[in-house]
Write the structure tokens for this entry.
Amino acid sequence: MHICMDKLDWSLIPSLLAVAKHGSLSAAARESGVSQPTLGRHVAEAEARLGLVLFARTPRGLVPTDACLALLPAARAMAEAAYALGLAAAGREVRLKGAVRLTASRIVSAHILPPILARLRATEPEIEIDLVPSDRVENLLHREADLALRMARPVQPDLIARHLADLPMALYATPGLLAQHGTPKTRDDFLRLPFVGFDRDDTILRLMAGLGAPRRREDFAVRCDDQLVYWQLVRAGLGVGGMQKVVGDADPAVTRLPPIVQLPALPVWLCAPPTLRGTPRVARVWDFLVAALAVPVGPKLNKS
């Protein structure tokens, strides 16, 4: 089947790729940041321009037709070329001013980065920061962000990455919960405590299994995958929860539990596309973050 791609406006192609990837307008809107009505208009316009039906409307969502599947490789190639062009152009920027888009986890964005960014802005007032709190892994090569702080070693190829630190973790509970259930002195005491669990994330289940005390999802009466909300549930006394010590130790609403169970430290990696790493404003923010995070973040952060 021959499909004439030159009938398509470039602005329609990212929308088609997003809808084809996610199978629904709502999911594509969440990831792309484009509204559902706009995505719907883009799909309809693309179909009208090509004279083809690109998606079958089914109860399960939007399913790419054979015609759509035939044009997806060319559409992806066009998108990759556009991203590469944008990166190359951005890498030629020579001014120590302008916007830098930084993404980090919601916990890091809310609790660790604000004072660091305040110092950065005081030092470099012509550099603007677009902070993107997100627990998903943004594609830096697609310019979803210029810099990323990630809590795991990056697996995306063709990135410059630097390991900055390992943030120690601990378990916390409110004084009220410990008064009710007792401060644990033994491993058995610890395992009898109520915990705030995760919903779809299986990290806690794997941790418990590793301790020889397997649990089911249903064993946690309150569950949440959003780390920022999860911490608020712990602070409200709904159960024990893990947190970075730099955050938990500074919070008067909770008490750190005795180290009966050791949680693994959380690695901090700073990543950037190689074409942007040398851009003066991106390089300045990179260096500032390295200086701020490659040493203790606050007086309560240590390696213990």
About this structure: Confidence is low (pLDDT under 50) at residues 1-5, 297-304. The first strand starts at residue 55 and ends at 58. The two ends are 63 Å apart (CA to CA). The chain is about 40% helix and 20% strand.
